[in-house]
Design brief:
The structure is a single chain. The protein has helices at 18-33, 48-54, 60-65, 84-93, 139-155, 174-185, 192-200, 203-206, 211-216, 229-244, 289-292, 307-316, 336-351, 365-375, 385-389, 411-419; strands spanning 38-39, 45-47, 68-70, 76-79, 104-113, 125-134, 161-167, 250-251, 263-271, 279-285, 300-306, 329-334, 356-358, 379-384, 392-397, 403-407. Helix 13 links the parallel strand 12 and strand 13 (356-358). It has 16 helices and 16 strands. The strands form 3 sheets. An 8-stranded mixed beta sheet has the order 1-5-6-11-10-9-7-8, with helices on both faces. A 5-stranded mixed beta sheet has the order 13-12-14-15-16, with helices on both faces.
Length: 420
């Protein structure tokens, strides 16, 4: 065994399980590509201040969980702990908001990093697919993203997930609620760190998962009672559009999410089969984030869905994805001349768009056919020097067991005909 192992709290994606992760990423991305979202990819590390400003100093992500480093030139960088701030930064730097046609609709896929206590469903390196609609203040955008996430999950066969929905208000009404909540929290028996958090961002205390804190929050002021008329109307329109699309959700007045930049619409996707790490994705509206990081006013909304947790949710429901075999034709050449000829045939098959593999290592027929079975190939092409002398190969259907001789020059067309 190698001296080295993957760092604690991380994982390697290896076949065959890695195919499920790729299938999940594709399923989440598919409805986005079909809805006007273009692909964006950002660096794996960013300026620390991008996250401290946008995500928020009071969050666990910034205060406890970021991986930071100082470059030889003195720059303070952080491995990206989430995607929204990076994508917005990239859109601003690329002046996408100045090209017209707002909102700018983007989707992304990548790895993110947080220093957390490692446990099933919570890793220090994790994968997400996300979507952002930048520069549009429209309840239909919020509803669109919720509907697309629901569509992605259902396309995978998931059924036992729930959508939680809430409104966090805006800069007009949230300050009033903030004062009322702070006044309530000051009367509780909280530890020093939670008291500090309550003074910086009291809504974050509502997100505290500790039972003793939650017990004290009974009777806390509810944000919906403080929403201004504009926020109430906006939220009702989001709810109406999602409902009209046949997507079921639950109103959750305590849902605040873990990032400081959220305003108005906030939502979360949870799966009850995952235990304590039940959130499989979430998002919301972040109308002030662009200004926080030095950009113009660009009201925006987005989400990120966890690939890792979605795979765990599929496993919890006992869902096996229908993943096609990566190989359609497996070629076995017996003898040097036959190996050269079939290697050329494999190249022709690949150029014709047919997935093909080859028996490497000069194995005998028995060992090579074991490899063919492992590959999941639908067909095998077998030839020895005697077959080659006659200008034919043996084309075997691995499902039926039928085997027929085919002219070497006609293998590609013969395979195409059987696949049609």
């Amino acid at each position: 065994m190698s001296t080295f192992q993957a760092p604690k709290g991380t994982y390697d994606l290896l076949p065959p399980r890695s195919a499920s992760f790729l299938a999940v990423r594709e399923a989440i991305a598919a409805p986005l590509r079909n809805s006007g979202y273009g692909y964006v990819e950002t660096p794996g590390f960013e300026n620390v201040e991008l996250f401290s400003r946008g995500v928020g100093e009071s969050t666990d992500i910034v205060s406890k969980e970021m991986y930071t480093l100082t470059t030889k030139g003195g720059d303070e960088l952080a491995l990206r702990p989430e995607g929204t701030a990076s994508v917005l930064r990239a859109a601003l730097q690329g002046n996408l908001h100045k090209l017209g046609g707002l909102p700018v609709k983007l989707w992304y896929s990548g790895s993110y990093y947080r220093y957390e206590r490692a446990q099933k469903g919570r890793y220090r390196h994790f994968s997400q697919v996300g979507a952002e609609a930048i520069g549009g203040e429209d309840p239909a955008l919020d509803a669109e993203l919720i509907i697309l996430a629901d569509q992605a999950y259902r396309s995978l066969g998931l059924r036992n997930f729930r959508i939680l929905l809430n409104s966090l208000g805006d800069k007009e009404c949230r300050p009033v609620y903030r004062e009322a909540l702070q006044a309530f929290l000051r009367g509780l028996d909280l530890d020093a760190e939670t008291v500090r958090r309550a003074e910086i961002n009291p809504l974050r205390v509502l997100d505290d998962k500790r039972a003793d804190v939650q017990a004290q929050l009974v009777g806390a002021p509810v944000l919906r009672d403080y929403l201004c008329d504009a926020c109430k109307a906006y939220h009702e329109e989001v709810r109406a559009l999602v409902t009209a699309a046949g997507v079921v959700f639950e109103d959750d007045e305590k849902l605040v999410r873990g990032l400081d930049y959220y305003t108005r619409t906030t939502f979360e996707f949870v799966h009850d089969g995952l235990g304590s790490q039940s959130a499989v994705g979430g998002g919301g509206r972040y109308d002030g984030l662009s200004e926080m990081i030095g950009g113009p006013a660009l009201p925006s909304v987005g989400w990120a869905l966890g690939v890792d947790r979605t795979v765990l949710a599929l496993e919890a429901e006992g869902i096996e994805l229908d993943i096609p075999a990566s190989t359609t034709v497996f070629a076995v050449g017996l003898g040097e001349e036959a190996r050269r000829a079939l290697f050329d045939t494999v190249t022709q098959l690949r150029r014709a768009g047919i997935a093909a593999d080859f028996s490497f290592g000069g194995k005998g027929l028995k060992g090579a056919m074991k490899d063919a079975n492992r590959s999941g190939a639908r067909f095998t092409v077998v030839a020895g020097d005697r077959d080659l002398a006659e200008g034919v190969v043996q084309l075997k259907d691995m499902e039926s067991g039928d085997q027929t001789p085919v002219a070497l020059a006609d293998v590609v067309e013969a395979v195409r005909a059987k696949l049609a």
